[in-house]
């Protein structure tokens, strides 16, 4: 079963990629940096969900 953190993290990571690309396209360095931060947060949340799933699988 996929943990909700994996889904939410993946969505945040994807949104961050879009935000970074938009920032590059319009020359907005702040938006580009925010997109990179969102990607890192999303990746962390997604990995947390994967670990949580692995632990749940091991204890079941």
From TrEMBL:
<dbReference type="InterPro" id="IPR008462">
    <property type="entry name" value="CsbD"/>
</dbReference>
<feature type="region of interest" description="Disordered">
    <location>
        <begin position="1"/>
        <end position="60"/>
    </location>
</feature>
<feature type="domain" description="CsbD-like">
    <location>
        <begin position="5"/>
        <end position="57"/>
    </location>
</feature>
<dbReference type="InterPro" id="IPR036629">
    <property type="entry name" value="YjbJ_sf"/>
</dbReference>
<comment type="similarity">
    <text>Belongs to the UPF0337 (CsbD) family.</text>
</comment>
<dbReference type="Pfam" id="PF05532">
    <property type="entry name" value="CsbD"/>
</dbReference>
<protein>
    <submittedName>
        <fullName>CsbD family protein</fullName>
    </submittedName>
</protein>
